[in-house]
Amino acid sequence: MERKEIEKMLRKVRGGSLSISAALEKLKNFAFEDIGFARIDHHRHLRRGFPEVIFGQGKKDDQIIEIIKRMRARKQSVFVTRASRDLFRKVKKLYKNACFNELARAITIIPEGIKPERSGILVVTAGTSDVPVAEEAALTAEVLGEKVERIYDVGVAGLHRLISVKDNILEANVIIVVAGMEGALPSVIAGLVDKPVIGVPTSTGYGTSFSGVGALLGMLNSCASGLVVVNIDNGFGAGCAASLINRLTS
What we know:
elongated, alpha/beta, about 40% helix, 11 helices, 5-stranded parallel β-sheet
């Protein structure tokens, strides 16, 4: 509940149109709303600058839909990660402005008039198999108000592809680099720029990549100074971090 809402409620109490007991009932949900199976953090946008994000994997569709309803009742943006198309069909019946990013596996409901404003984030992938994780990162940043440029399939197996987009890389404020296999691309890019580079290891790779562990260890052991690394396939975490960094440059 924001300050304006509290002041409005107090005026209603003073004017007699809202009882004290009803006001107290509203204040119970000041920090979060307990709906039995979940405690929705409605004030996260006040603390962090963006609303609570719903991690869809492992949750029942009706649970996710109920959380969405509670968030939309407060006019909050909705972002559901690791979502299925079946879930999206159900959400779309309730909210016509709901969108589904197939690659990112994410559902968004953004109030009309809210558009990305800050430029400066670049998302790069080593290969096309890394694109789903990259799209999760890019979409996350866009939901948080960033304009995102994408450059895909410029891995170390053909460095001439990377050199051809060097100007784009140098112009970015923060770069998310998504790579599987041996995870070498973040080290290469971090060695070329003086901007923050966020490495995202993916589970893409052959047997000894160990479902992304090889890429993760490669990035963690990078000799490129200033490279930071998120967990395997964690495009969401990379998008959040990039947005927070980019806000400092605006």
